[in-house]
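FIELD: query
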Amino acid sequence: MLDEKGYLWVATTGGLVRFDGTSFEPAETPPEVSQRGMIHPSMPPADAPGRLLALGNANGNTDGNTPGAVDGVYRRDHQAFVFEREPALEGKNVRAIFSEKNGTLWFGCEDGTVLRRADGQSQRFDPPAGLTGRKIPAFATDGAGHVWVAINTLVARFDGTRWIPLPVDHASNEVRIASSRSGGPWLFTTEAAMKWTGEKLELIAPLSELQGSHFIQAAIEDRYGKIWIGTRSHGLFRISPGQVLAVPTSHEDIYSLCEDADGGIWAGTNGGGLNRLRPKAYQLFDKDSGLKDNFSSTVAEDANGVIWLANRDGGVVRVIDSKADLISRRLNWRQFSAMSVYPAANGSVWITSGIGVYRTNATYPDRLDRIRSLDNFKLVRATYVARNGDYWLSVDPDSIARWRDNDVRVFSTNDGFDGREVRGFAEDASGALWVGAADGRLFRSVGERFERVPLPGAEDCGSLQALRFEADGTLLIATTSSGVLIVKPDATPHVRTLGTAQGLPNNNVTQILTDDSGRYWFASRRGIFRIDRDQLRDFASGKIQSVHTVVLGKDDGLTDLSSLGLFQPSAWKARDGGLWFATRRGMLRLDPSLTSDDSGPPPVTLSAISFDDRPQPLASNIAIPSSVRKTEIRFSALNLSAPDQILVRHRLDGFDNDWVVQTSGRSATYPRLPPGKYMFRVEASNGSGVWSTQDTVLPISVVPLWWQSDWANVLYFAALTLVIFACVRIWAHRRLRRRLEGLERERAIERERTRIAQNIHDDLGASLTHISLLTQLAQHENPEQARSFEKIYDAANAITRSMDEIVWAVNPKCDDLESLVYYVGNFAQSFFKAAEIRCRLDVPAVLPAVSLTSQARHNLFLCCKEALNNIARHAHATEAELTIAVNESSLQITIADNGRGLAASKLAQSIDPFRVSSGNGLKNIRQRIEELDGTCGFTERPGGGTLVTFLIVLPKLQN
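FIELD: result
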């Protein structure tokens, strides 16, 4: 039976299983249900909402082999069986159960008792007196919804309160009954199949003794009004007025029958498994059909609707009334290998072969005429008849020919045509002939010449095997390497490629047809497939980037339908709507009307979920522990008749960036998912490419472990904060300690510098002063030695001045900018006074409190001293100017004089630009300034003299 979702349920001796079109899944059942089974083990019954029903005994006291006493009914609801006790069944051996559309249940007992259960109330009907033989009731409904029962020879209708016997006497000792969609129920006796019209029993078809009521175990009416009967040990039959057709099955013992949503018939057998029967949409013409060869290269239909085949070594074959007529062998035509057939404009048929070109006679089709003017054309790969009646042929290796009123013209390089091995012809709306060649070149006729048509973006497309023009002028080209080229009718041809990357099963496409529904059918080296019309047009316009193809495969009982396309036309659409394809297995006739996909997208359901390969209960909201390494979700796209046509896509919001499309398989597998909330979605599409309007969703939440929870994250954050705080504290403490240690070292150095300065000043200074006094005293006491004592006095004074400089440089109390400026200015005035040079000072009134290192002070002083000394010794100046400028970032000292200038120096042309005298003073200045990362400049002063500039960056000099 089918449930409300579309699953097919099958009851077996081992339990219940359900089928979604691709796989069977066992269903958990209570032990008593598994032992008891169903009334008919192959097909379980259902109540009105489509829920499964099974008989059972709450105490489990059942016989595993034969039906026994029951006291209730199991209903399957929400993945489980729920038992409902029925006291009226106690002690009864129930052999039949039946459900009306409104949910009313009927039970038939072995002794003929009938029990009705409706709205929680039970009503019991005892069998009529005098009834003999088997008394097992069978139930059915008519077109009006009335319930009928058959008990042996009794047939009655329930009017709501009582049973009304059928007022017709029939000579049968046993009657079977079946429901009907319209009119009265079906009745089967040992001799006939009949139907109640309301007034009488109408004979539908006579039955043999082995097909009669005694052997019938199942009967259903299909959607077309035909009745199917399954017999015990004699097989399955389909009954129509006056005809009983035997239908082959895997086993002749038919237990039950069911019809699916697509009109397929399912037959449960005793030992032969489950059989699916569908209308046969195809017919294959091969050796088994009487042909001499399985491979027919081309096919065409003449003006009278007769199909012609070029059956290679088998010659020419006609197909009339679905039967093959080997006309070439039957009429003893000259034996040849047929290559191509094509209907001529006058009603005859063109035939090409290895020995020449022939044409049948329009008046006498059995007569074959040889066209002598075409005798030179031995290998013809493709033929075509234009609307004006011209017959075109490909001429190997690099020409094409036209036959017009017995006049033959060959087109080659001189006529603008240089293609090789022509495979396809087509004619556009203007009557121009288009030609496709094996070297990928496309040509179009212009008058009596041909011109090359470029195919931009279609390089390496291979051979152009078939051409087809659409009503809007779009050209479809079947190729050997790039699938299908779609050429839009623009001024500049624009080519769009439809290949395996866009959804085709194979890139070697040999022919293109359309059926009466507008669907496109393609023959290829890997089989025959179709694409919905709207899909192809949307792809051609760029609205979609891929298509959904439906391949004729195992669902249709067809495999290895390879179409070579070496000769054309290798496919043809007949006027009755049938499509013909030349394949390696034979010539295939397809009825597209029996492959309809108008039912819309199939319903999609979630069937199972597992964690690390352990099945889990399927609920409306799934919670997954974060320790799960693998999550698998199984789903079903419910199409029982053609599951291979279904395309499924799924997506896990929060994990997948886009839809994941599956052409096979019905499951999605995910690795360990991070904690959080997700939404699993799944959709399905049939051959039309239309997706489900409402996707099936499953909320999923991944539960974090305790160390992944929010409060654990708070603890982690707090711990991390404490660690960072502790690290920062330790780092700051160590930094402070190192700073204090550095300050302590600096203070020790300063104390040592102070002690040294004091010792030099007190001890050495006092000694030098004492020497100066002694030399002055000695001058008075020894006049004759006065000059020598004067030299000693001058030397002592010089040493005293040098000592004073050293004391100033060493003394840490002088490590500031103010001390430097004061000392340099004081030294300049004293120095120039002794040299009789007037000195002017330009110093800021207020100096910033900037501390300097002793080394920086000393080097700056020595640089200034050397500059002053150069003025006194070499400049011949009468005036000098010392300017000090200070800002937040730099110190600039400028020393100028009015002397001779740099150019007057004897060595002004020295290689070293800083060496303007024979000494090393200026070179020393430069070295000291570079040590301070400063710059110095020596330039001529406007008006005469020299200008010396020192520029020092203060932050680099500070303590």
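FIELD: remark
Confidence is low (pLDDT under 50) at residues 34-44, 61-67, 906-918.
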